[in-house]
Amino acid sequence: MTANLLDFDLEGLAAYCATLGEKRFRATQLFRWIHQRGASDFSQMTDLARSLREKLAQHARVEGLAVLSQHESADGTIKWLFDVGDGNAVEAVFIPEDDRGTLCVSSQAGCAVGCRFCSTGHQGFSRNLSTGEIVAQLWFAEHFLRRHLGRDERVISNVVMMGMGEPLQNYAALVPALRVMLDDHAYGLSRRRVTVSTSGVVPMIDRLAQDCPVALAVSLHAPTDALRDALVPLNRKYPLAELLDACQRYLEHAPRDFITFEYCMLDGVNDQPEHAQALVDLVRGHRGTGVSCKLNLIPFNPFPASGLLRSPPQRVQAFAKILVDAGIVTTVRKTRGDDIDAACGQLAGDVRDRTRVGERMAQQRTVVLRRAPAPGRTKETTRS
Ligand code: SAH
Ligand code: SF4
């Protein structure tokens, strides 16, 4: 089996090139061809010696993922479904905004955490993606979009690991993929513009701080252990106090001086004024100093099997006001791409389900997006 060069960060590629008797600067050239130019054919790489190109053609490949479908929302959001074999598929979503282009990337086929409100969680866990499969989502999307939009320069300015899967339960593949995203010879994204979102795998938060401290988002969803145990089963292993301690430790290394807490607003479940107050007490009162954070309120994106409903906008606003009045920076996330089931938590990506999803998407492609109205002192944003 030949090596897929999408599996390597620059160090890995240099080590691989060394096995072919090639110097490090050759690895850098190759890395730039692959990631900056989107090349997969070694014969195109004209500034590499012919002998190297021949060796590569024999021993290596640059192999992306097959695209099963592509859907474009009325608001410009694009969702791709990629085949990862054995009946599994994963999704990536591009979210264009005036000042940035964000790609939401998957880390696993399915997810083992099993959150109540998440359709990926309901699907169960199939397998971890390899580094190459994580990187391939960005490699494909970036170069597709440049062609699609007729642009020479970078289109994707931000990556959020908020697609399918729990990135910190696929740590070994995640870290080299993050390094490719950050590398100036590849995508050159700043650490502030790459966000890992986690449901709270405490030991891995500490390792990420050491290995590759990018921006961190923590999916909180509940202010008490009793409620969080029910919504995010991982809480039974890593309860809130331990999770907030890990956030505090992460801040010493983080590229931003805050942690983003995500909170999915579920009608009648976690959206009452007393939940907002408990949330204020939790993040402000933690260890007497509080945790420096921003709160991101996400309107729940319903899917049939959840049995849950989205909180009404007035309730989200009332909730946000309690946080804002307590001095916590709070945003209410706009829902993007929900007409194509590309919004947070709607990513299912199961090939067995593909035809039905495809039909549903086709029917819904022209549906006008629902937008949560901007509450008074909070601002609206998308995944950032
Ligand atoms: N596993 C990681 C990252 C992927 S989920 C995590 O849980 O953080 C990305 C975000 O989407 C998380 O904040 C998650 O809580 C949220 N989410 C999941 N299902 C959702 C739904 N149905 N509606 C809105 N947000 C959802
Ligand atoms: Fe997994 Fe995140 Fe979905 Fe929970 S919300 S099931 S951790 S993908």
Report on the architecture of this protein.
This protein is of the alpha/beta class and 384 residues long. It has 2 domains: 3-61, DNA polymerase, domain 1 (Orthogonal Bundle), CATH 1.10.150; 66-383, Aldolase class I (TIM Barrel). Helices cover 35% and strands 20% of the residues. It contains 12 helices and 15 strands. The chain has helices at residues 10-19, 24-35, 50-59, 119-123, 131-149, 171-182, 202-211, 225-231, 240-251, 273-285, 313-325, 354-364, and strands at 3-4, 60-61, 66-72, 78-85, 88-96, 101-104, 108-110, 125-128, 158-161, 194-198, 215-219, 259-265, 293-299, 329-333, 379-381. Strands 3-4-5-6-9-10-11-12-13-14-15 form an 11-stranded mixed sheet, sandwiched between helices. The longest helix is centred in the middle third of the chain and has 19 residues, at 131-149. The chain is globular. Mean pLDDT is 89; it is low at 350-384. Bound molecules: S-adenosyl-L-homocysteine and iron/sulfur cluster. Residues 117-118, 162, 166, 197-199, 219, 262, 264, 298, 300-301, 344-345 line the site of S-adenosyl-L-homocysteine.
Looking at this protein, list some descriptive labels.
two-stranded parallel ribbon; globular; disordered C terminus; 20% strand; eleven-stranded mixed β-sheet; TIM Barrel; DNA polymerase, domain 1; 35% helix; 384 residues; alpha/beta; binds iron/sulfur cluster; binds S-adenosyl-L-homocysteine
